[in-house]
Amino acid sequence: MPRLRMSLEVVRAVLQGRKEQRGLFEEMVGFASGTGSLKNVHIMNDLAQTVCGGAPDEAGDLLCRIIREGFEDDRYDNSEAALRRDPRYGGAFERAYPVTLGAEQVRRLRLAARALLNVDGGMYVAGDQMASSVATNIALLGAEGFRRFRIGAFISSVLDDAGRQRIKEFYSTDTDPVSRTLKPIFQQGVLVDRVPRRSGKSSLTPLDQALGDRLGVLLSQPLSKPLLLRYLALASCMALILKIYGAGREAGRPALLALPSQSEGASRPLREKAVLSLRRGVAEFDRALSKRIAEVSDAALWRSAKPGEAAVEVTEGDRLKASAALVEALRGARSGGDDEEGKIYWPQDFAANLGRRAGFILPKDGRAGWGNYLALSPEMVEVLVLMFVPHGQQLGWRTFWTRVRDELGLVIGTNQPEDAALLEQAGVPNVSLQDLSDNAMALLEQSVRRGVARYLPDSGAEVGVYE
Fold it and tell me: What is this structure's pTM?
């Protein structure tokens, strides 16, 4: 059979997109995913700027210099004297730290700002872009390169107008403790959004609609702003992971077996099945991706690569078979999911790295060879409860997880025959009903310890946020 040498450069552009054109990965999952370094802080920074319309033009540079008390940078003198006479920042620094405070008090206040703002090391030398995980006001936001992946735009798109307005209100008020503490160093001025908007709007899948509804319930909970923003970050992280692993399935909804994070161990009975459920999500994604590649009309993709050009060889003829062979070859050739220039970075690599950082995917170190699986910490179960149970209400334990399964595609085993049937249909066969029951009980016990579930006198259980 004749062989076709498909250009790797063209294939990469088709999958990952070009500067002004979405690639197939972004079309399938709703956002770009070409990094392994994204954290929750970047998600929230992007979402806030997407909803609010950008960040102050200073883009966090003043904040970066303020917190670098005692640091010597090649480009900047961050001393108090230098900042007071700086032509760009001198006025703002003087308003925040009047000279009458004295040098020692100014030093202590700057160190306090660093301890609070840079708690996760996300703020760098001025000009190198920044993001603070505790930013609770638009005046504390800064530019950072991960906004180019348009994750904030995706999350914003699944929310309704009320949800977007709620987020905008969060970042517009300054009555929370973080904002009140840092108000003297707020950046002011016209908001600037440096991320170009995409033309057109993708249609929402049933999973997207469910995520939007559930994020809306979370945003309506009467919690403090810092806590609610933290929970929104965790829920958004989970949403991205579910979106990626469900992208190849009908309705965009995955079928993932989740285990409790507090009983991690290699001998856990369902671990192999949980790993397999993630892998089946990858396989379905690859199948859907192959179909989309076969439908690409770009002549450059189906033209033989130039002599000496990096290429992948596939059997010429049937485009669907050629596309499937291409995906298989690319999967086999990828190396560990780093960000080296020229690599094709798969959405599932993005999901695994993000999930490990958020504690949503275990093991945290993938080098052991056990395989990734979904894990629910007590805090993550609390977030799910806040997404499904409005304030002041309760929901039966089994009913709660049935709704989570039907809307988001997460299975823990509360409804053993139904859950096993769903996993079987998704390509995870022969799941023990007893093991599913034990898994659900372990999650119930950790949820009771967390205070988001309680046992009932009739041997049942319910979830809710209790006073």
Answer: 0.92
